[in-house]
UniProtKB/TrEMBL annotation:
InterPro entries: GPCR1_Superfamily_Member, GPCR_Rhodpsn, GPCR_Rhodpsn_7TM. This is G-protein coupled receptors family 1 profile domain-containing protein. It is found in: Membrane. One of its GO terms (molecular function) is G protein-coupled receptor activity. It comes from Eptatretus burgeri (Inshore hagfish).
Length: 241
């Protein structure tokens, strides 16, 4: 919702736009951080099973890690947007709430923010690639527990796809601005807004629950039962008609 408000270029007060931009950045950074945390959990489970079973990746650690991820994800956009709000505190009028407009207010803070985001995303990609090759090497060497290594490798592959979809959102606004320069019809442009929003922002959020949900045997059995019951009910209703 926050991203839709920002990208649809609605007119609002400057401070309101700053708050919405902060929330949007928080959700984006936390999503990438959660992917890295889940990848690290799979790496620890396969490459360092002693630490994993000792409770390093247990519920207690999750309770500690989750607030840290939210806090770290909140600190960066809050700092830069607060500095921008202080510098532009005299702005009281309505503006078009667009990420590109916020960039134009101060190039210095925007450049530093871009460098920090670039380093963070580069670290994220390198972490996933490192874990992928580590698990590939272990799965080739292991013979007695190759099934667990293969499943972990598949999970990390899905996390890599998840990360690529998340990082592709960085090209969302430049791509849409490029389409505007091509003078695409307004209705087609609006449709592309929502299609790209679903593919780039909504779909990645479904991947993690889907991956970890389908891995759970009890949940998988319940899904099969509900699907079979739904299919049988539809067939019975059609036969009665």
């Amino acid at each position: 919702m926050t991203f839709l408000l920002i990208t649809t270029q609605m007119c609002m007060y400057f401070l309101t736009c700053i708050v919405l931009n902060t929330v949007s950045n928080l959700l984006f950074l936390s999503s990438v951080s959660f992917v890295i945390a889940m990848t690290a959990e799979r790496y620890t489970a396969i490459c360092h099973p002693m630490l994993y079973h000792a409770g390093l990746c247990g519920p207690r650690m999750a309770i500690l890690v989750l607030p840290l991820i939210w806090l770290a994800s909140l600190s960066v956009p809050t700092f830069f947007n607060t500095m921008l709000a202080i510098k532009m505190r005299e702005i009281k009028w309505l503006i078009i709430c667009d990420a590109q407009n916020l960039v134009s207010f101060d190039q210095f803070y925007t450049s530093i923010k871009s460098v920090m985001y670039g380093c963070f995303f580069m670290f994220s990609v390198l972490a996933v690639v490192f874990v992928y090759f580590q698990l590939t090497w272990i799965s080739r060497r292991a013979s007695n527990d190759s099934g667990a290594s293969s499943r972990a490798l598949m999970t990390v592959t899905l996390h890599a796809i998840h990360l690529v979809l998340l990082l592709s959102s960085l090209f969302y606004l430049p791509f849409m601005n490029w389409l505007k320069k091509l003078k695409v019809q307004n209705q087609m442009l609006l449709n592309l807004y929502f299609v790209m929003f679903f593919v780039v922002f909504v779909l990645p959020r479904f991947l993690s629950p889907l991956v970890y949900g389908l891995r759970d045997t009890k949940l998988r059995l319940q899904i099969k039962r509900h699907v079979l019951w739904t299919i049988s009910s539809c067939i019975a209703v059609r036969q009665c008609q």
